[in-house]
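Hi F.,

I've been meaning to write this up properly since the lab meeting, where we talked about keeping a consistent format for the predictions we share between groups. The idea is simple: the sequence comes first, exactly as it goes in, then the structure tokens exactly as they come out, then a line or two of notes. No screenshots and no reformatting. I'm using this chain as the first example so we have something concrete to point to.
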Amino acid sequence: MLFSVLMRKAYARNLQYRGSHVLNTVASSLFGFIYVSIWIGVGEGSSLGEYGVQGMINYVAFNQACLWVTVFLTNGLGLENSVRTGQISMDMMRPVHLFYMLMCREWGQIAYQFLYKMVPIFVLYVFVLSLSLPDRAFTWLLTACALLLAAYISICVQYLIGVCAMWTTESRWLVWANFAVSSLLSGFLIPIEWLPGWLQTISRLSFYPYLQYHPTRIFLEYENGTALFGSLAWCIAMTFICIAVTAIVRRKLEVQGG
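Output, unedited:
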């Protein structure tokens, strides 16, 4: 019950800003066209491995579209602002686990961004870039599962970033640091197998490939879905970490505002 209420509230809140969000959607789609143009240029002098030019176009386009459900979430799940205003003290007193409450709220944000940002960008790319779509319904199902698990992992990451605001005066730099690292290690800018060996090792030992690389390769049918077990393992691990961190937070909380 609480899950659906908080999710609907977050979704409805975003509906009030549909006009301004159109600009974000347009800008994001333009960045995608820029990345595609770069890889088309690179492909003129290279075979681009198993992907080929059209495969890289599909790879980059799908990556750009799914950013809105796997990476571009609420910064720190809004915890930094809660700490600055003192609202966090009230949130901690509620008879609901802090992580669960913020997670429910964020799913509403993700649902909104899926419908009003990811889907429009993806549809635009399908028609303009002639993207190849999977023929099998099972591939679509696997892709949906991969994106849901990726979104949950990202929620956990943003929660852990937000929690840092309870002990520091500034945590937004962690958001940008996470985005920078994610752009490289998640396979967003370049497929992981093309990274230097030592970077490949770091990437594959982290959760980042499960945000972009594996969902995209599942959609393009380069993988059969076994990566979902890794995604699920990271979801379970991150959940326990978030719960443990919340228990620590309850022992010592510094409120900056009020």
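Notes:
The chain has a mean pLDDT of 88.
The first helix runs from residue 2 to 15.

If this format works for you, I'll send the rest the same way.

G.
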